[in-house]
TrEMBL record, chains A, B:
Residues 5-59 form the HTH lacI-type domain. This is LacI family transcriptional regulator. The keyword Transferase does not apply. Keywords: DNA-binding, Transcription, Transcription regulation. The keyword Transcription regulation applies. InterPro entries: HTH_LacI, LacI/GalR-like_sensor.
Length: 336, 336
DNA sequence: CTGAAAGCGCTTACAG
DNA sequence: CTGAAAGCGCTTACAG
C-alpha cells in the first residue's frame, strides 16, 4: 500500500516551504497565482488531499456530528437517521453513526468515543436499557464538553435540547378516530410493553378508556411474537366474548400481526373490525390491505434535531428546548 | 461549554511531565504504581479521556473502518451494515458510515473523506449511478493508499476483495423450484429493471426460460410502483391469456406488490398461483401470507466483508479474492 | 509574496 | 523511575 503524500513532501519537491504549500492549497491571497498553480498541479498529480485528522486537530473542529441510534432495523429510526444525514450534509456537516443495540454499555462507549474530539456535537436516541436502569449520568458528563440533542425518547433527567413525537396525542387521536366511527370494543395490542414508549402508549390508552364510559378497552401485551399472534387470534375469534370492533397496534410488529391475524381469519376490515397502528410507511403502501397508521413524520424529527444541534453549537444553550412534532392519523384500507 | 482537559494540564497540576502522564495513563511499566495512581485519580476526577484525533494522528492508526452504503432504507443493506458493525466491534474496530443515496458524487466524496486518514480501510457497496456511468476511477485512486472491500455489487473493473451473493443461482433455484412443482407459466416482476442487479436477474430468468422449452416465461418491469401494480393485476386477472401459475419477484417492492395483488383479487396461493421473491425477513414472518423467499444471508455478507478487510490490513493483498455467499429458497405460505 | 516558528494533543525513543 | 525532545500533518500569526 502506498503512503499518502503529505504537504511536507510536496514542499520538498517544489523547493518551497511547508507554509507556502498549505496556503496555496487553501487559496490564501498571500500566495501568487503562479505558485498556487505550481502547487496545485503537483498536488493533483500525486493525488494529494489534506489529512483530515491533522486538519481537525489543528483547527480544533471536525465538522462531524455524531449520531447514536439504538437499532437501524427500526424503520422509524432509519428514516430519522436518513434525514439527519441529509440535513447535516446541507449545512456542511458529516455524520458519524454508532449503533447501541439498545444497550447501555454500548451507548456509554459510543458517547465516550465521539466526545473525544471526533465530533462537534451528538444527536442521540437513548437506548432502552438506559431507561430501564434509569442511568443518565454518562450523558451529563459528556454534555459538559459536547453539545447533546436527544430525540424520540425523553426523560426528565435528560435535560437537553430534544425532539420528540407527540406520543400521547397519537394514541388519543387514534382512539378518538374509533369513537367517531362508533366503535365500542377496542383492543390495544403491543409487543413492546417492556419498553418505556410501550408503557406510555398503554397508559394513555387505558386512561382514555376510563374517561370514555361508553367504550370498552382491552389490552394484549406479549413480547414473544408467536405468542402475541396466538393471543390476538384467540381473542378475535372467540365468539363467547364481546366482539372486538377495533384494534390499536402499539408498534410495527403488533400492527402487522394484528393485520395478518384478521386477514387469516377472514374477518372483514371496516365492516367487522378496524385497525390503526404503526407501520413501515414504504412497505405499507405496497401491502394489501394498507393499514391505517399514525404518521410520526421522521423527516421532521431528523431535520429538527440537526437544527437544534447546530444552533446549540453557535451559542451556548441556556435552557433546554423541547420540540414536539405533531402526529397525524393516515386513513388507509383498515379503517373509515 | 467547558473545554476538555488535556494531558498537559494534568501534568501541570501534578507538577510532573507530559510524558509521565501519558505513560501513566497507558499503564506503561516504566512508571511507578504510585505515580500511576496519582495520575489516574486526577484524570478520573477531571473526566479526562485521551483525544482520539490526536492519538490517531500520532499513531497513524485510527481503528476505524469506513462503510459506504447506498441506502439504509434497503432492509438487506441495513442488515449487512448491522453485521459489519457487530463483527468490526468484535475485532476492535469502530465503523464510520456514510450513505450515498445511490449517487456517484456522494460516493466519491465519501471515499475522499474516509481515505484522508479517518479510517484504516473501507467497505463499500458501490452506488447504482457508479454502474450506470461505468465510472470506477475514484475507487482505484483511493485503493492505492487505503484497502477497499466491495460487497453485493460486482463489476470486472472493481478489482478488489469482495463479497457478493450468488444472484444467478438464486434466480435459477427459484425457477427450478417452480419447475419441480410443475408450474408452467411463470411471470417475472421487477421494479428495478434499471438497476444492474435487476438486469442480471431478468437476464438469468430469461435464459432459464429459453432452455426450458416446456415452461413459458413472461416479464413485467416497471419503475413506477403504482403502474407496476396495475400491470400485474391486469395480467393475473386477464382470462383471455394463459393463466399465470407462478410469480418470481425480483426485489422487495415487486414481491410485496405481487403478493398484495394476488390477495386483493382473491386468487389462492399455491392452488392457483405460487410466489417466490425477495423480502424484508423480519416483517415477512409477521405477515399473512408469509411469502416464500430467497435468503441472501446478510449476516454472512457483513461478517465476511469485515474479515476480508482486516486480513487485507495485515498483509498487502496480491490478488483480489471474490467470496460468494450461497443463497437458499425458504418456503413459506406462497409456494409448495 | 515567502518562510520560520509555534502549536493542536498526543506518544515514544532516548538520556539521565 | 522521570523528563526533554522530536514528531504525527497540518494551519496561521508574525517577520522579512
Amino acid at each position: 500500500m502506498k503512503k499518502k503524500i503529505t504537504i511536507k513532501e510536496i514542499a520538498k519537491i517544489l523547493m518551497v516551504s511547508v507554509s507556502t504549500v498549505s496556503k496555496a492549497m487553501n487559496d490564501s491571497p498571500e500566495i501568487s497565482e503562479k505558485t498556487k498553480k505550481k502547487v496545485k498541479d503537483l498536488a493533483k498529480f500525486y493525488g494529494y488531499t489534506p489529512n483530515h485528522i491533522a486538519v481537525s486537530l489543528k483547527n480544533q473542529s471536525t465538522f462531524n456530528i455524531g449520531v447514536i441510534i439504538p437499532d437501524i432495523q427500526n424503520p422509524f429510526l432509519a428514516e430519522v437517521l436518513k434525514n439527519i444525514e441529509i440535513t447535516a450534509k446541507k449545512k456542511g456537516y458529516r455524520i458519524i453513526t454508532f449503533f447501541t443495540d439498545e444497550k447501555l454499555k454500548e451507548e456509554r462507549e459510543s458517547l465516550n468515543i465521539l466526545s473525544n474530539g471526533m465530533v462537534e456535537g451528538i444527536i442521540v436516541c437513548p437506548s432502552e436499557e438506559t431507561f430501564v436502569e434509569r442511568e443518565f449520568k454518562h450523558f451529563n458528563n459528556i454534555a459538559e464538553t459536547t453539545p447533546i440533542v436527544t430525540f424520540d425518547r425523553i426523560h426528565k433527567e435528560l435535560d437537553f435540547n430534544s425532539v420528540s413525537v407527540d406520543d400521547d396525542q397519537s394514541i388519543l387521536k387514534a382512539c378518538a378516530h374509533f369513537k367517531e366511527n362508533n366503535l365500542k370494543n377496542i383492543l390495544f395490542v403491543s409487543s413492546i410493553g417492556w419498553l418505556s414508549v410501550g408503557k406510555t402508549r398503554r397508559r394513555t390508552f387505558k386512561s382514555y378508556m376510563e374517561t370514555e364510559k361508553a367504550i370498552e378497552g382491552e389490552t394484549i401485551e406479549e413480547h414473544n411474537l408467536d405468542e402475541l399472534r396466538a393471543k390476538i387470534e384467540a381473542r378475535i375469534t372467540d365468539n363467547s366474548l364481546p366482539k372486538i370492533e377495533a384494534i390499536l397496534g402499539a408498534d410495527i410488529e403488533s400492527t402487522l400481526i394484528a393485520s395478518a391475524s384478521i386477514s387469516r381469519n377472514k374477518i372483514k376490515f371496516i365492516d367487522e373490525v378496524s385497525l390503526i397502528g404503526y407501520v413501515n410507511k414504504n412497505h405499507n403502501e405496497l401491502q394489501y390491505p394498507r393499514v391505517s397508521y399514525i404518521n410520526q413524520f421522521p423527516e421532521k424529527v431528523g431535520e429538527k434535531a440537526v437544527d437544534l444541534l447546530i444552533n446549540n453549537l453557535k451559542e451556548d444553550h441556556k435552557k433546554a428546548t423541547l420540540e414536539i412534532i405533531k402526529t397525524e392519523i393516515v386513513t388507509k384500507d383498515t379503517s373509515k
